[in-house]
Amino acid sequence: MRQVERHGQVAQTTAGILAHCGSTLRVAAPLGLGKPNVLLNAIYRAVEADPARHLHLYTALSLTRPRPKSDLERRFLGPLVERQFGADYPDLDYALARARKALPPNVRVTEFYVQSGALVGVDSAQRDYASLNYTHVARDLADTGINVIVQMIARRVENGRERLSLACNPDVTLDILDEMAAHGRPRPLVVGVVHPRLPYVGNEAEIAAEFFDIVLDDPACDHALFALPREPVNDAEFALGLHASTLVRDGGTLQIGIGALSDALVHALLLRQKNNVAYRELVDGLGGPHALVARVGGLDTFVRGLYGASEMVMDGFMHLVRGGILKRRVFDDFALEQALAEGLIGEQLKTGDAERLYAGGALPARIDSAELARLMRAGVLPDGCRLDGDGVVLPDGARIAADLSELQARAALGRVMTGRRLRDGRYLRGAFYLGSNEFYRWLGGLSGDDFDGLSMTRVSDINQIYGGRETLDALQRREARFFNTTMMATALGAAASDALADGRVVSGVGGQYNFVAMAHALRDGRSALLLRSTRESAGVVRSNILWNYGHTTIPRHLRDVYITEYGIADLRGRSDEECVQAMLAITDARFLDWLVAEAQHAGKLARDFRVPDAWRANTPERIAATLAPYRARGLFDAFPFGSDFTPDERALLGALQWLKRHGASRIGRITLALRALVQGAPTPAELPRLERMDLARPEGFAAKLNRGLVLLGLRSSEPL
């Protein structure tokens, strides 16, 4: 058994790591929330101060608090960031230095996924980016000679017994160690850093203390968790979510990502469940359900519910649990899962289920020790049963025959089974979690069946169906819908989700390819890539559906479903011309003629093709008009799941976004400045908003100009 060192100070652990590694540190840390920031900062500073040492950090998604780019942003973000993260949140020193382009020469950071858009202009980050599918990270890192793994962990003490959990990040750590062992690599030093506020997760995330070489429990590591601010959702995103929600089938499986588009999808699913009349009216108002819906989706409420299997567990799943939608549980017993899938039984066993299970092959001809353990584990029989000769003795002393080929024995078993619930079912499996403060509170408050039904596990178990249990995985993930976002798509069905045409990385492929490939591997799975039909850059609106693009994340031969605010394009198995027409049908009307001309020039669209009149109605104005009456009824708040902003901040946020749009060009900025100078005195309603920006009594020309800009923005925009 491994001897575990218990440390109470960060300095002690840092010294131990330096002594173990010598002059070369090759450190792996989890993506996202699981990084032990305080320890990583101590390691970074020790290396920064000693040019003889070298640090190569392997990680992903190094989260940093929002950084203002202007004085107005500073005034707005300052109080918000302090409220969200606290005054003493420890940003990652290496991430801040890298963003300033000031990493020391003896420090290198390799990431396979980066905070979206944050490092497009940072050359060192672009050079050291590693393009990897999430499921390949462990395999490829095992060959790099990693000598330290550091990870934030959760701890519980119950009845004097310590329990430890990888909690937010069991995703890659276990796989890396297994890969290294399989290839005869030396085991790295494994350091677990206890964080008292990290929500504890059981099941596969739980780990023995002996898994670690060092467990650090220092009060200095107790700080606010990185909580994602909730984003506003606009009309186009709400419409897109409504279209996407129609492809989700009751009794199926759901994978979703994060951001406004995912929030819109979750909002639409909840609307479908709670206000089905309005939901159907909205779907009809947006053009009616796509023909694909009748085959793979639905418009009805959820009775059986959904099972969640997603690399990332976030707020959306919390809302779906609360809304009574995420409730289908899966069981790691193929025969019982098959019986559930076929509707032979439910999770609550009833009279006659013993006969049905026996006829379906889910009960054996004879109960032996292995079958008895299986039936108790699944909850079919109570704990404490034992074999005795040719019978099974129940905890109360009653006895049933072990030979189930006899009708009387099955009848006796059925009487014991009736009323019992299957157990050890999972309603949600994920590889890492990350979300809002509300989400962390929800996770931390789970208990009983809700706690037991959530499993955080290896990414190799979530993002693929290989590894020896393919048949069970496919059965559990029946009717799977994999929803992911993409930046741009071509009319022939390729997607650009992670990088620009010149190769600069915006984010990373992450698990997107995994889920697209899995959708094609599953008999009834479908992949849906979500994208806004347009984007605005430097004051110019551009189409996100293009004829061609210089970077591809998902190749066109894996094309499946695309969804914009204008509808659904079903590309699976279609010819190139059919794909082009399907993509044209969900393109913003302003770009249809250009895209048609490109397709005709390439010979992919008939020369006599004419755009149908219905597609000419693909405009933001039609979307807004459709949603307006329902927005007036309170169904489409810009923050459908609550806001981290006060009412004054929501007004200011709308004003700042308006200023950003209208000041994208040099002429626009000059025009705004001239208009700002003549805004006059604030109204009583505007004064507290100026006070929030510390502009109620500005001193100096720059502050007075900023006050005028804020007033102009407030008077020209609507609060979000």
UniProtKB/TrEMBL annotation:
InterPro entries: AcetylCoA_hyd_C (IPR026888), AcetylCoA_hyd_C_sf (IPR038460), ActCoA_hydro (IPR046433), NagB/RpiA_transferase-like (IPR037171). It holds the Pfam family AcetylCoA_hyd_C. GO terms for biological process: acetate metabolic process. Keywords: Hydrolase. Gene3D superfamilies: 4-hydroxybutyrate coenzyme like domains, Acetyl-CoA hydrolase/transferase C-terminal domain. The keyword Hydrolase applies. Residues 435-599 form the Acetyl-CoA hydrolase/transferase C-terminal domain. GO terms for molecular function: acetate CoA-transferase activity; hydrolase activity. This is Acetyl-CoA hydrolase/transferase C-terminal domain-containing protein. It comes from Tahibacter soli.
